[in-house]
Every structure is written in C-alpha cells, then in structure tokens.
Amino acid sequence: MRESVHDELTALRGDFAELAKALNSHVADHSARVAVLEHRLTEADAEISELKTAGKTSTATRVSVGIALLSAGLAWVPDIISAIGK
After folding, report:
1. Residue 71: enclosing H or E segment and its boundaries?
2. Helix, strand, or coil here: 81?
3. Alpha-carbon distance 82 to 32, whole Å?
4. Distance between CA atoms of 46 and 4, rounded to whole angstroms?
5. Positive or negative torsion for Cα 71, 74, 76, 82
6. pLDDT exceeds cutoff 70 at 86
7. Verdict on whether the full-model pTM lies above 0.85
C-alpha cells in the first residue's frame, strides 16, 4: 500500500509540475497584453479626467459669460424705464 501511495504522490507531483509549466507559459504569453491594456486604461482615465476638467472650465466660462450678459442687460433697464416714462 505504501508503494501505491508513493507512486500516486509522484504522479501528482508530475501533474503539478506540468500544470505549473503551462501556467507559466500562459502568463508569459498574456502578461505583455495585460501590460498594454493597463497602459491604455491609464491613458483613457487621464483623458476622461482632462475632459471632465475641461467640462467644468467650460461650465464656469458659460456661467461667467451669462452673468456678464445679464449685467449688461440689467444696465439698460434704467434707460428703458426712463424712455418709457417720457
């Protein structure tokens, strides 16, 4: 019985060694692809952040222009009222 257990353990070690080789090969094949994908994701995240920042700046610019236009329009109100009153 001891020999059969020993033989079985030896067979399992061989199977695990083959699996480890296959896993290492698989990781070696795909690690470069994963690195490229991670780099692309990092670039995409940076671009999204830039677009969000640009969108906030754009919104701030729109608000500033809107306030300037409102101020210019309200500055004419006294002139319009005095023209109506004459």
Report:
1. helix 2-75
2. helix
3. 76
4. 60
5. negative
6. no
7. no
